[in-house]
Specification:
The structure holds two protein chains of two kinds. By secondary structure, chain A is mainly alpha-helical. Helices cover 71% and strands 2% of the residues of chain A. Chain A is built from ten helices and two strands, in the order H-H-H-H-H-H-H-E-H-E-H-H. By secondary structure, chain B is of the alpha+beta class. Classes of the chains: A mainly alpha, B alpha+beta. Chains A and B meet through helix 4 and helix 5 of A and helix 2 of B.
């Protein structure tokens, strides 16, 4: 497996920020009331992750060991603030939906985590890909949690998607369960923890099945030899 | 290696931090200059929209510029005045009521005769699915205030039904509509008290 496909697989599934590393719980719990909010937060985080990995990787050789953490934090905070003001100025409708959450990206330890664990030790291109893939994995996780909570909590899926993505995406807004009275627990913070717990358990089961199948295959391959 | 030598020097880390701070601050300052006008414009548009929602109809002036600041029910309020033919036809201001999970901020529009032209909740932290029926996107409840004034509805009836008033409460959430009703009533009382000043007819009305 080449390094790039390894990075991709790591970010999307094997080492998924939410489902495997269980990082960035603050934004995860705060915004996943609906699938649309999860998607928006995920996309904004992806942009910051890719850029912060890019910059930090580019300066990794001149940053001395002792002050690397403050330097990384200043760079990440700057990028988040730049994202905040530019979305506010040029995509104001989006800002009204996401405004509260953008500042939360700073509180997402996954961003600093990737800077420290990957970008500080690897060249620019793999680092940027790592940020991008970790971000997409994060987006996937947030959207999934949001979708589960939204379907059970309100009976809809991707409500208000047109506010986030523009009018052409209004078709995504579906009402899955007509006349649904709603299940409040899932819309409130406990629902976030419940959904996350079940989804992590689900990922573990899938991973175990994959491992078992791979082991069986290896066994089947190994068996004919002694005969 | 020269870089390694440099890095081992005491001042290197400090200089590095300084340069980082300098570059990032410069980036932020540039970004602020590039965006502040657009942000102010967008916020003014937002304000205009929320004013237009509680004040239907056409007016001659720019509401955002014709304001007066007065001590109101919850601290100083900025009152936006809409004029027709020079006379103040209606006013809009923000009122706040106590909700279940924090203050509920509403925009309240009142015409010169003291009747409510519209109420919109602009900020709240109420429970989704229960208290958020005060949002116009979720329920028509907030329209119940429109057209009501102290002339056609006695002051003590400005309350939710549970408290002997005329406004509906929601199943499972009484505190939220009570908060909004209290905010609107507070605004109405404020309007009745300050009417002359709000309508810019102080001194003229004799």
């Amino acid at each position: 497996m080449s390094i790039y496909s390894h990075i991709t697989r790591d970010g999307l599934w094997d080492n998924n920020v939410v489902f495997a590393q269980v990082l960035g719980m603050c934004p995860t719990m705060a915004v996943t009331g609906t699938a649309t909010n999860g998607l928006g937060m995920g996309l904004a985080t992806t942009a910051v992750l890719a850029l912060s990995n890019l910059f930090i990787s580019a300066i990794r050789n001149i940053v001395s060991e002792e002050v690397r953490i403050p330097v990384y934090i200043v760079i990440i905070a700057t990028l988040v603030t730049l994202a905040d003001v530019s979305i506010n100025a040029w995509a104001h409708d989006l800002y009204k939906v996401l405004g509260l959450y953008i500042a939360l990206i700073v509180a997402n330890c996954a961003v600093l985590g990737r800077a420290e664990a990957f970008a500080a030790k690897n060249p620019v291109l793999p680092s940027m890909l790592d940020g991008l893939m970790m971000g997409i994995g994060f987006t996937f996780a947030l959207t999934t949690i949001g979708a589960v909570r939204e379907i059970i909590g309100a009976g809809t899926l991707f409500a208000d998607a047109h506010l986030l993505l523009g009018q052409p995406f209004a078709f995504m807004e579906t009402k899955l369960i007509p006349n649904y009275r709603g299940f409040l627990l899932m819309a409130l913070p406990p629902g976030g923890f419940l959904a996350l717990g079940f989804l992590i358990a689900g990922k573990r089961i899938i991973d175990r099945n994959i491992a078992k199948r791979a082991a069986e295959k290896a066994m089947a391959g190994a068996e004919p030899q002694p005969a | 290696m020269r870089l390694a030598q440099l890095q081992s020097m005491l001042g290197y880390s400090g200089a590095l931090l300084g340069v980082t701070a300098l570059i990032t601050t410069a980036a932020l300052a540039l970004a602020d200059r590039a965006t502040s006008a657009d942000i102010a414009g967008a916020q003014a548009r937002d304000m205009q929209q929320s004013l237009a929602q509680v004040l239907p109809g056409q007016f001659d002036n720019d509401l955002l510029k014709d304001t007066v600041k007065l001590p109101g029910p919850d601290g100083e309020v900025t009152v936006y005045r809409a004029r027709r033919g020079g006379k103040v036809a209606a006013v809009v201001f923000q009122v706040t009521g106590p909700g279940y999970a924090g203050p509920i901020d509403c925009m309240l529009g009142i015409d010169r005769d003291g009747a409510v032209t519209g109420v919109r909740v602009i900020r709240h932290k109420e429970t989704p699915g229960l208290g958020d029926k005060i949002e116009v996107a979720k329920s028509a409840w907030v329209h119940a205030f429109e057209g009501k004034s102290f002339a056609n509805l006695p002051e003590d009836k400005w309350a939710v039904k549970k408290d002997g008033g005329v406004f509906d409460q929601f199943a499972g959430a009484t505190i939220t509509p009570r908060g909004v009703t209290r905010a609107v009533k507070g605004g109405m009382t404020f309007f009745a008290r300050e009417k002359a000043r709000l309508l810019d007819e102080e001194g003229k009305a004799k």
